């Protein structure tokens, strides 16, 4: 009995001691601590237990529980780390619009060996310079030139889908089809090179991109292997595989860059048909080859980082959005029919669609559908930042204060876009809610983020998705076969059950 009491007393003493250490280490966070409720690391290890409990499958559920319990802004005090999770529109807007707090979180570091510090992962001066030269590469004129690529690659996808459709009797997981289509499109538009991912499933480069994306997704929430050293120690074989994949991908992109640079230098493509089949079409790579910073051209390695970044960011996100859209349309026949009527009005020709940016802008119903899909199933459900300078805020509920440098910040786009105070019946799929100009919900609806670090490829993505959807919906009726989606976090949002549906050729 007495020994039992001694053990309890010792445990309480240790817990108190740790708590005091914790308070001393986190002294600078005390002010925020008082304002933001959440989980502590000590004396009870609730924050640590939470971090290890969360995985790809239960991520959204666990965070919903946390927000329900503590409110829209939740603090997680680790031993030496302080993380704020926020689905609070007002606070997130302050952060997204800030020109200062744009530093990416270390969670993304596992992507750096592949993507380097291209636009997605760079910070500070480098990011500013890159953003300045990359933004004009997504100019309307350039996007218009890409429409034939979107269209031609969609027609390859139609053939692939026709082979598995079986007149709507078979359940098809649409995700891998959309993934290969998005890869073909981004390779051709970013690098000016056809990779034929849809017809040649064994091509080393595209297989490597897919395998690497899956591996990054697998590592993303496993805190102990996010660092390259611990990854090598805990998973040496996977680390070796990762090195191999990176070497395949870098070799491929370097070759493409070298070839395009030589072509540009000898001005071949101004006279001849290039392998993308057009005299005038420029790939994003060509624009990077011509760009300069302070009068100096970008090096091949600078360009490689950006091309690899486009390859990653430009295929995984659109794959997710397109697959969720098709899955949801299959389950909402009325909306599907409304969309089809709009498509037939804008593109009455049975055989051929003449896509222009202008007629794609006429697809208002489709725009609402895509927005609603991105609201419910945002491809990028969470944005992570590191606060490197004290963040001064004025907030209607928190008052005014400072979030100290060193704080980690997770903005839940998913939480914001499903917030019942911003969206009526938030879990319902109602595209018409976007018909009005999102009055009152401006910053609650941010699937492409907002402010200086918003998505540079958002217009590209919208036009790409529209062309693909027009082609698929004109050819196939989508049927509600298979399982419902079960969202998981794999860097981007995916579904554990795939994105199932049936496809029936229209008469
Ligand atoms: C449905 C499709 C897409 C969605 C929902 C989406 C969403 C986003 C979001 C939310 C961010 C901010 C990420 C952060 O701050 O951590 C982002 C950044 C970015 N996106 Fe997209 N994206 C899409 C398609 C694309 C495409 C097609 C491209 C390229 C062709 C692209 C290129 C980029 C790049 C380079 C960044 C980094 C921008 C910067 O940090 O300055 N995205 N995207």
Automatic annotation (TrEMBL):
Cofactors required: heme
Entry keyword annotation includes Metal-binding: yes
Signal peptide (UniProt feature, chain positions): none
A GO molecular function held by the record: heme binding
Binding site for heme: 455
InterPro entries reported in the protein's UniProt record: Cyt_P450, Cyt_P450_CS, Cyt_P450_E_grp-I, Cyt_P450_sf, Cytochrome_P450_Monoox
UniProt keyword terms in alphabetical order: Heme, Iron, Membrane, Metal-binding, Monooxygenase, Oxidoreductase, Transmembrane, Transmembrane helix
Domain of life: Eukaryota
SUPFAM superfamilies: Cytochrome P450 (SSF48264)
Membrane-spanning residues: 6-25
Pfam families: p450 (PF00067)
Family: Belongs to the cytochrome P450 family.
Listed name of the protein: Cytochrome P450 4d8 isoform X1
Protein source organism: Musca domestica (House fly)
């Amino acid at each position: 009995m007495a020994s039992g009491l001694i053990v309890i007393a010792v445990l309480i003493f240790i817990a108190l001691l740790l708590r005091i250490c914790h308070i001393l280490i986190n002294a600078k966070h005390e002010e925020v601590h008082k304002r933001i409720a959440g989980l502590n690391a000590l004396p009870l290890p609730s924050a640590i237990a939470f971090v290890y409990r969360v995985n790809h499958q239960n991520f959204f559920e666990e965070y919903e529980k946390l927000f329900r319990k503590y409110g829209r802004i939740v603090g997680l005090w680790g031993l030496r780390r302080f993380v704020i999770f926020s689905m609070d529109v007002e606070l997130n807007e302050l952060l997204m619009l800030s020109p200062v707090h744009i530093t990416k979180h270390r969670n993304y570091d596992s992507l750096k060996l592949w993507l380097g510090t291209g636009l997605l992962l760079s910070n500070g001066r480098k990011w500013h310079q890159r953003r300045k030269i990359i933004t004009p590469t997504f100019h309307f004129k350039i996007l218009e030139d890409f429409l034939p690529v979107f269209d031609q690659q969609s027609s390859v996808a139609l053939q692939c889908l026709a082979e598995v459709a079986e007149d709507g009797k078979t359940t098809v997981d649409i995700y891998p089809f959309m993934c290969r289509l998005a890869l073909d499109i981004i390779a051709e538009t970013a690098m000016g090179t056809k990779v034929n991912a849809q017809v040649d499933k064994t091509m080393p480069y595209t297989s490597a991109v897919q395998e690497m994306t899956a591996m990054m997704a697998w590592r993303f929430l496993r805190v102990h292997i996010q660092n390259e050293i611990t990854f090598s120690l805990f998973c040496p074989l996977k680390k070796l595989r990762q090195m191999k994949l990176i070497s395949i991908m870098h070799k491929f992109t370097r070759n493409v860059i070298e070839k395009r640079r030589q072509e540009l230098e000898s001005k071949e493509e101004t006279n001849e048909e290039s392998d993308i089949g057009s005299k005038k079409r420029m790939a994003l790579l060509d624009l990077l080859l011509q760009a300069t910073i302070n009068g100096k051209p970008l090096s091949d390695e600078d360009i490689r980082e950006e091309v690899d970044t486009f390859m990653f960011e430009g295929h995984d996100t659109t794959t997710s959005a397109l697959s969720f859209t098709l899955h949801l349309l299959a389950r909402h026949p009325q909306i599907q029919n409304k969309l089809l009527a709009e498509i037939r009005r804008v593109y009455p020709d049975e055989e051929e669609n003449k896509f222009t940016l202008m007629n794609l802008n006429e697809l208002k119903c489709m725009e609402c559908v895509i927005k609603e899909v991105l609201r419910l199933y945002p491809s990028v459900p969470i944005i992570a930042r590191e606060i490197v300078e004290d963040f001064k805020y004025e907030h209607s509920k928190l008052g005014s204060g400072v979030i100290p440098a060193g704080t980690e910040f997770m903005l839940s786009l998913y939480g914001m876009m499903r917030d019942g105070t911003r969206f009526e019946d938030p879990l319902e799929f109602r595209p018409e809610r976007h018909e009005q100009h999102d009055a009152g919900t401006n910053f609650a609806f941010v699937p492409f983020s907002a402010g200086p670090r918003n998505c540079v490829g958002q217009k590209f993505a919208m036009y790409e998705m529209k062309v693909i959807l027009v082609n698929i919906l004109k050819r196939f009726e989508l049927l509600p076969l298979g399982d419902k989606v079960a969202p998981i976090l794999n860097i981007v949002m995916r579904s554990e059950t795939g994105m199932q549906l049936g496809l029936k050729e229209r008469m």
